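Render this sequence as a predicted structure.
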Amino acid sequence: MPVTTEQAKSLAQRFLDTQLPGIMVADADTFYGYYTLHTLRNGQVEGMLSVNGYTGAVWYHTWHGTFISMKEFRD
Protein backbone atom coordinates (compact mmCIF):
# COMPACT_ATOMS: atom_id res chain seq x y z
CA MET A 1 0.00 0.00 0.00
CA PRO A 2 1.32 3.46 -0.78
CA VAL A 3 0.27 4.83 2.65
CA THR A 4 2.72 3.58 5.28
CA THR A 5 1.84 2.58 8.82
CA GLU A 6 3.37 5.78 10.17
CA GLN A 7 1.53 7.92 7.62
CA ALA A 8 -1.74 6.18 8.55
CA LYS A 9 -1.12 6.93 12.21
CA SER A 10 -0.35 10.58 11.42
CA LEU A 11 -3.45 10.95 9.22
CA ALA A 12 -5.60 9.35 11.93
CA GLN A 13 -4.24 11.68 14.62
CA ARG A 14 -4.77 14.74 12.42
CA PHE A 15 -8.39 13.63 11.91
CA LEU A 16 -8.89 13.18 15.65
CA ASP A 17 -7.28 16.53 16.47
CA THR A 18 -9.91 18.29 14.36
CA GLN A 19 -12.94 16.06 14.97
CA LEU A 20 -12.43 14.67 18.49
CA PRO A 21 -9.83 16.79 20.32
CA GLY A 22 -8.16 15.01 23.22
CA ILE A 23 -8.43 11.55 21.66
CA MET A 24 -5.16 9.84 20.65
CA VAL A 25 -4.40 6.90 18.36
CA ALA A 26 -2.66 3.67 19.30
CA ASP A 27 -0.53 1.60 16.91
CA ALA A 28 -1.94 0.64 13.52
CA ASP A 29 -2.92 -2.92 12.62
CA THR A 30 -2.49 -3.70 8.91
CA PHE A 31 -5.28 -5.36 6.94
CA TYR A 32 -5.86 -5.83 3.21
CA GLY A 33 -6.09 -2.30 1.85
CA TYR A 34 -6.43 -0.44 5.13
CA TYR A 35 -5.16 0.09 8.65
CA THR A 36 -7.21 -0.02 11.84
CA LEU A 37 -6.21 1.89 14.96
CA HIS A 38 -7.72 1.94 18.43
CA THR A 39 -8.51 5.38 19.76
CA LEU A 40 -7.53 6.30 23.31
CA ARG A 41 -8.99 8.63 25.91
CA ASN A 42 -6.73 9.11 28.94
CA GLY A 43 -4.68 6.09 27.79
CA GLN A 44 -7.70 3.76 27.66
CA VAL A 45 -9.31 2.34 24.51
CA GLU A 46 -12.48 4.27 23.70
CA GLY A 47 -13.08 3.24 20.08
CA MET A 48 -11.42 2.69 16.72
CA LEU A 49 -10.97 4.13 13.27
CA SER A 50 -9.54 3.00 9.95
CA VAL A 51 -7.32 4.58 7.30
CA ASN A 52 -7.47 3.57 3.64
CA GLY A 53 -4.01 2.32 2.64
CA TYR A 54 -4.32 3.73 -0.87
CA THR A 55 -6.09 7.08 -0.45
CA GLY A 56 -5.42 8.00 3.18
CA ALA A 57 -9.14 8.50 3.83
CA VAL A 58 -10.03 8.17 7.52
CA TRP A 59 -13.29 6.81 8.88
CA TYR A 60 -14.26 6.57 12.53
CA HIS A 61 -16.13 3.42 13.57
CA THR A 62 -19.31 4.75 15.15
CA TRP A 63 -21.31 1.55 14.61
CA HIS A 64 -19.47 -0.47 17.31
CA GLY A 65 -21.11 1.33 20.20
CA THR A 66 -19.41 1.80 23.57
CA PHE A 67 -16.14 -0.09 24.01
CA ILE A 68 -16.47 -2.76 26.72
CA SER A 69 -13.35 -4.92 26.56
CA MET A 70 -10.86 -6.60 24.26
CA LYS A 71 -9.41 -10.11 24.12
CA GLU A 72 -6.34 -11.18 22.21
CA PHE A 73 -6.12 -14.71 20.90
CA ARG A 74 -2.80 -16.33 20.21
CA ASP A 75 -2.00 -19.25 17.94
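Summary. The radius of gyration is 12 Å. The chain is about 20% helix and 35% strand.
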